Amino acid sequence: MINCEKIIDSINVGIVTMDADLKIYYANKWFTVHNDIDAEQVIGKNILDLFEFSPERLKSLKRHIKAALTLKGPSFFTADANHYLFPMKNSTTTKSIFEFMQQDITIIPYCVEEKQVTVLIYDQTSLMEEKAKCNKESEELANANRIANATIRKLETAKNKLMKQKEIIYKQAHYDHLTSLANRTLLTQRMQLLIENNQSSGKKFGVLFLDLDNFKEINDTLGHDVGDMILIHVAKSLLLATRKSDTVARFGGDEFIILVDDIEEEKNLNHIATKLIQAITQPIRIRNFDLHVTTSIGISLFPNHGVDFNQLIKNADLALYVAKAEGRNTYKIHHQSNK
């Protein structure tokens, strides 16, 4: 004959039968062992004699019992949402992060007329520990990800600052602070690059040396602040009158150098110089005054008049000297100045 009591005591589930007033009518071996009590002493006692329920958990137990009896069906309490209903201590031999056993509980009607239910208690401590471990690892991973993202943002910010600082330093080292034109350093680099490229390609480029006529008198009579405004205006005019591929540089004071690449014929330089002189002679409106400025230009041609920086600048300067001597507001090409 099958011993049902033995089977019930062998399963790894707590079974307790009680009524709506929480009086116990039956408890299996699992329940008594996990609570370290004698089975005979449990019967007839109130569940409140065995456990100290918090007001919320006691209210939850009574609500689930009422639901099972009213609906005549099971009512569920999950460890995932509520952790535990019965404050049952974990085994002293088992280390756990939880003080109380984590429980899934199913409450089913036993005898509706007597308002009795059977409570099935499933130990979910191991599962909840694993879930807590996963949650902790996920939280640590998320935190590490946040730290990594914050670090990346900081690095990007630092990189952007360094790039801006690099740009500022480069600009300070390669551009004129007043006109924002290329300075001597950048001019030297650009010309050296043109020399190297054109030596291999056989192409020519022009060097135009501009000097504003009588600029010292303007500074002496109108002041250096007005002189600076004129220089800024002239720089803009030169940029507008040249191509983006050309280099316009402030060589010093009221002197400017323009590098014009890809010159096929010398007459191209005549056209460019004439265009520049016309651009400079346009009236400049400063402090309600129309000021008139002119320029003289000396021109040298690579490789006809030099194959290095110093020679090309020197010959362009010699041509400029001739243009000044011939009345200013004009241009001269180097070989013309030697006639």
Write the layout of secondary structure elements.
Elements: H1 4-10, E1 14-19, E2 24-27, H2 29-34, H3 39-42, H4 47-50, H5 55-71, E3 75-77, H6 79-82, E4 103-111, E5 116-123, H7 125-174, H8 184-201, E6 205-212, H9 215-222, H10 224-241, E7 247-252, E8 255-261, H11 266-280, E9 284-286, E10 289-291, E11 295-302, H12 309-325, E12 331-333, H13 334-337
Parallel strand pairs: 11-12
Antiparallel strand pairs: 1-2, 1-5, 3-4, 4-5, 6-8, 6-11, 7-8, 9-10
Helix pairs in contact: 9-10, 10-11
What would the keywords be for this entry?
Beta-Lactamase, alpha+beta, 12 strands, 339 residues, 51% helix, single chain, Alpha-Beta Plaits, 20% strand, five-stranded mixed beta sheet, 13 helices, five-stranded antiparallel beta sheet
Any overview of this molecule?
The protein is of the alpha+beta class. It folds into two domains: 4-123, 2-Layer Sandwich (Beta-Lactamase), CATH 3.30.450; 184-337, Reverse transcriptase/Diguanylate cyclase domain (Alpha-Beta Plaits, 2-Layer Sandwich). 51% of the residues lie in helices and 20% in strands. The chain is built from 13 helices and twelve strands. A five-stranded antiparallel sheet has the order 2-1-5-4-3. Strands 7-8-6-11-12 form a five-stranded mixed sheet, sandwiched between helices. Strand 4 and strand 5 form a beta hairpin. Helix 9 packs across helix 10 and helix 10 packs across helix 11.
Write a compact overview of the structure shown:
The protein has 339 residues and is α+β, with helices and mostly antiparallel strands.
